[in-house]
Design brief:
Length: 145
């Protein structure tokens, strides 16, 4: 039970960060980012679009946290984690083609590759533990001759 609560706490914390940064980026565009203030209109539009997608991933994590004990939470968690890792890969590609970003963004890159595997492995362990508990708790029906 304690592991489930700790997992939920990490998922909720992640969701709150994503919801906050997603809403902030939709509302303020690139202004909170370190570096240049003004970006072309097309970049601003695209940035806000992907900020809304990011915000949606936060909503998905809230659903995962609420349904963590249910097996149907696993595909949604995998989807969110896959999206975050793909975002990290896109950041790596940006480094290759455009250069190294601000250290804050490099820190986020690290999280994008570290946190998803932790969440997925932890969730899998919780689900296996729950399945083992369910199997042990279920009565064994006698075999008919």
């Amino acid at each position: 039970m304690r592991n489930v609560r700790a997992f939920q706490a990490l998922v909720v914390l992640s969701a709150l960060i994503i919801l906050t940064t997603g809403a902030m980026d939709v509302a303020l565009g690139t202004a909170p980012l370190p570096g240049e203030d003004a970006v072309p209109v097309n970049v601003d539009s695209n940035y806000r679009f992907f900020a809304a997608v990011w915000l949606t991933l936060g909503v998905a994590l809230v659903v995962v946290a609420a349904r963590v004990r249910e097996p149907d939470s696993a595909p949604l968690l995998r989807l969110v984690c896959t999206a975050v890792v793909l975002g990290g890969l896109a950041r790596v590609w940006s480094i290759v083609v455009a250069g190294v970003p601000d250290p804050m963004l490099l820190g986020l890159l690290g999280l994008e590759f570290v946190l998803p595997p932790i969440l997925l492995l932890w969730h899998r362990a919780l689900m296996r533990g729950a399945a083992a508990t369910d199997t042990a708790a279920s009565p064994v029906s006698p075999v008919s001759p």
